[in-house]
TrEMBL record:
CDD domains: fungal_TF_MHR (cd12148). This is Transcription factor domain-containing protein. Residues 129-146 have a biased composition (Low complexity). InterPro entries: EcdB-like_regulator (IPR053181). Residues 113-151 are annotated as: Disordered. It comes from the Eukaryota. Signal peptide: none annotated.
Amino acid sequence: MGLTACQCHYLSGIYLLHTLRPIEAWQSFFQASSLYAVYLKNQATLRTVRDTVMLGDRIMTDEQSLPDDLEHDLQQRLYWSCIKSESELCAEVNLPRSSLHDIHYPYQFPSPPTPRSVDGLDESPQQVTPSSSNNTTATISSSTTPGHYSEPQDFKELHEWSWYNYLSGISLFKLSGRVNQAFYSRPPSSWATMNLLDMINAAYEFEKQIEQWKLTLPQAISCFHTTLYITTVTELQLAPWLRSANIRLRIYRPFLYRLTCKIAKDWPLIDPMRHLAGKAVSLCLEPLFDLGLRHRNAESWFRCRESACRALLLICAGKNGLLRRMELEHRASETLQQCISHLRYWEREADDVRLARQTLEMMI
């Protein structure tokens, strides 16, 4: 069994995400992951054969039966792409997971592509001459909304930055899994009965891990370490910020819930709990969230979910008095309208987005 069918299903899922069809996209990712799980099991069977593999009248040596370096690297990238895409959808909607999640995969990160595996990365003299280098350009475009721009980049440089962005996403995917295990393995109502001190310590530890992750980012894909004008943030810089911000919201959300519940036994820890809940509010108001909201890509549906989540958190903070305490009521009102406007823009393509917008408008 080859990898072509797996790749086709995966790319189908990416297309379906572009068209805001998450359930159909999950079906494609589930199929891709299931096929890849079968492929890995077949490869494991081949590796159990010591010196030769008998195929009818043909004898194939072990070296011939195992994939070459290029295919091996492709296998790694396909594994992480499948498992990550499927898991991200399952984190938003309660859907079954494929058998790929039950396989212990030995590679913590995929191997980077080699020059001969990617067109345009060949180091031959014909491709590094000034004239050809000037012609081999690509455009980074964050979105079609105001405040973004397109900047031509050398193809090799762009490919390198894209690869760093891919690896950073895998790192945060692993961290997101730990956050989900700590706070989201049970229904949200369980936050009211969890040990608050353990929750606070876990939140601070996750914050520390995110700060350590930030230090690993190359400047080309980071907007954390320098003061940037919002109009100069590129798509490759925005993507890691959005991923980390969404994880931080998932870290802080339980504390806003707990603060709203006003549990009597929590008062000795009210200050750190309110501090973490306040971080959820402040993060919801970050202007970087408003970039690229009308830019169609594989994240469009997730960004609608993100806007709905931010709006709900701000509504909650308004009802429990936290917005008034932080003197952020006016900014929160503007952000709420921005979130609703974002949902309205996409609602014709997804019924759940329309229902989210209608629900929010009834709550305001």
